[in-house]
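Action item from last meeting closed. Structure (135 res):
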């Protein structure tokens, strides 16, 4: 991995306000870390402990990135509280490394709660939605 690529990853970390990034490329692994981000992404994770007693289950972020509830600014969100979803329906987008990744429902259910806040940084395992078991 060359210095230019490392600079690009460092720039991405600043842009997304990430505190850490690990990249595997051509058999080489590099881990970049910086001071704590302004937004504390651990708060939603603490909320997950409290929600275990509530009905439904959590859909969590599979990656670090910026959480978006809709396909573009000022558009209707993909889902909102009370919406019925089918397995494979798009729930949100997470922008990571300048790529938009669709996060889809892993089962049929009803959105009980939208936990993620639009246009904020989320980490691995950050709760995004609480969904019922079945329709």
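Sequence:
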């Amino acid at each position: 991995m060359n210095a230019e690529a490392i600079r690009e990853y460092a720039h991405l970390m600043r842009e997304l306000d990430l505190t850490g990034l690990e990249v595997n490329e051509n058999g080489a692994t590099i881990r970049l870390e910086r001071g704590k981000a302004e937004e504390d992404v651990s708060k939603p994770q603490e909320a997950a402990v409290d929600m275990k007693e509530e009905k439904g289950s959590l859909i969590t972020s599979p990656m670090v990135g910026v959480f978006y509830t809709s396909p573009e600014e000022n558009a209707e969100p993909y889902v909102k509280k009370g919406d019925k979803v089918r397995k494979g329906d798009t729930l949100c987008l997470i922008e990571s490394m300048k790529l938009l990744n669709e996060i889809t429902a892993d089962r049929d259910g009803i959105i009980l709660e939208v936990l993620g806040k639009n246009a904020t940084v989320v980490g691995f395992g950050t709760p995004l939605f609480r969904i019922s078991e079945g329709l």
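Note appended to the action item: The beta strands are 20-25, 28-33, 57-60, 65-68, 84-85, 90-96, 99-104, 109-114, 120-122, 127-131.
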